[in-house]
């Protein structure tokens, strides 16, 4: 395993944008699948001890993923992701918003832009997250960085088992 993989997390508060770059020791196709297939997302998409559960996912432009992160005591935090652009294996964009269990969105949300590239067996994922609200960005930022870092570690471990 390559322990020198890049992980970069930067915030531009003035632009209400988070920039994340993460490398994985796996093929671009496998990493793409891990980000775009519900059965794989549910295996890594929540920081322990929480778990992710996708109610449904239709990965196509205009399609949605409706999922929850579930705590050990059964509390659910739902979110809706609407896919706005897909270029297979290299890029997809989505709009993300928290929601209630009936899929009623809690606005404002955020726009996510994922880019995938591979060089010498290392896949690099660039993620740009634009928040509609500075207040939302400020409110979520600390917990988000810790939680997202944990989920990417989960993904790294899952990719080892899938390779």
TrEMBL record:
Show the coiled coil region(s).
none
- Origin: domain of life: Bacteria
Q: Which Pfam families has this protein been placed in?
A: AHSA1
Ranges of residues in domain Activator of Hsp90 ATPase homologue 1/2-like C-terminal = 26-159
Signal sequence extent: none
The record's family statement is:
Belongs to the AHA1 family.
- This one is known as Uncharacterized protein YndB with AHSA1/START domain
